[in-house]
Amino acid sequence: MKMVHQINLAFGILIVLVIAVTAAMNHYVLLNHFIGAQKEEMQTMGANMTTALQQKEFNGMLSKETLPITTLSAVSVANVEAIITDNEGKVVYGTAPKLTEAGVALPGVAVPVTGLKQQTSALKIAEGKDSRFIVSATAIPQGTLTLYTPMSKIKDIEQALLGRLLIVLCVSGAIVYLLSLLITRKLIKPLMKLRAELKKVESRQFSEVKLIKAGGEIGAVAQTVYELAGELDRYNEVQKQFFQNASHELKTPLTSIAGYAEGIRDGIFEGESALKGLDIILSESGRLKNIVMEMTLLAKLDSEQDIFQMNEVNVEELLKETHERINPMLIKKGLSLHIRYGEKNLGHWTIRADKDKLSQALLNVVSNATRHANHEIIIEVSVVKQRMNITVADDGAGIPHDLLPHLFHRFVKGKDGDTGLGLAISRAIVERCKGHITASNKEGSGAVISMGFPMLSQTKV
């Protein structure tokens, strides 16, 4: 069964239950109300009649001729009958329901108490043993005055009111049910459309997913699905590009290795040429090893959660270690590296990261700068909005504008680039350390790569 039908069925059952419970409650409330009102009215009548009787002399026997019930009532009320019993419980005056030939009492027809059967019926009513009547008893000097009225009259009034109430409830329930159908359709329609878009995601048709316009939580879910499809589409394209670039990067050194190996085997390269070929084979093997190692590291950074050991890292120590590791390359290229701190003792502050991984990320960035710098590299540390920023700037030609948006993607290489994975690895490491990394060009010349991290505290010197 479809969801829309399930919701409508459940709502319909709920409306029926509400109407049924309301009708049952109103039935008992109305019945009790009318019975209570009738009893209060008969008690008032009994009090009036008692006052009238006390003004008369009681001579042991009451009759209609000497004391009719109409003269005892202060207020004449229809369908109310009276029975007077003496102190011994005998009926001395009153009316009782008319009996049929089979001896069954007719509640709507009253006759004077004369025969034995009528005496018995009247006495049963006076004692409150006949559930077909509402009874109110009042003590008088001469005995007990009992007023009674048929329950059927009260039930007729209650049933009439309850019937009208049920009609109102049913009409209201029908209107509410129709409104629920409209509202349910309005709510379910976006869900059905969203389901169709999720089917596209399931079949990997990410680019064809459309944004479903809806309000509230459904709209938020639709927006999330649309953004998820966009991210999956971009990830899919990146993966395709990655495999294309990876196959190309792996194919190039393998081709060189295979070519020189075959040439040496077949005697094409001899002497100095053979030695040069062996050097190229070793060089390309090392390059191939680096590519494989960096691809493996990237895969681990993307998939493994426990590869990072997060600890407090002193910024000054991190930068000194990076300087020492990159120093041979700086000397070889005749470059100078300067570390500057924007504030006093800023180098003694710490950030939370994996020291070894972050050191590798910083080394990759500085190594990239050494390949493009002309004379110097400047590493500057500053604090902006409780974040520690580390910027690496060189005085080279800068980053081509068409390369900037893709600089941290895998296998993206600029001029004199190596594997095209170094900056991608740096980005993965920085982001796993809750940081961010960006690239830009300085005014004039030179590239700037900035890394920002949440700042923890200052270490004691």
From TrEMBL:
UniProt cross-references to Gene3D superfamilies, sorted A to Z: 1.10.287.130, 6.10.340.10, Histidine kinase-like ATPase, C-terminal domain
Coiled coil listed as a keyword: no
Top-level taxon: Bacteria
Molecular function as annotated in GO: ATP binding; phosphorelay sensor kinase activity
InterPro entries xref list: HATPase_C_sf (IPR036890), HATPase_dom (IPR003594), His_kinase_dom (IPR005467), HisK_dim/P_dom (IPR003661), HisK_dim/P_sf (IPR036097), Sig_transdc_His_kin-like_C (IPR004358), TCS_sensor_his_kinase (IPR050428)
Catalyzed reactions per annotation: ATP + protein L-histidine = ADP + protein N-phospho-L-histidine
Pfam families: HATPase_c, HisKA
Transmembrane intervals: 161-183
Subcellular location(s) per record: Membrane
The enzyme's E.C. designation: 2.7.13.3
Top EC class, one word: transferase
Keywords: ATP-binding, Kinase, Membrane, Nucleotide-binding, Phosphoprotein, Transferase, Transmembrane, Transmembrane helix, Two-component regulatory system
Listed GO CC annotations: plasma membrane
Domain Histidine kinase positions: 245-457
Protein name, UniProt field: histidine kinase
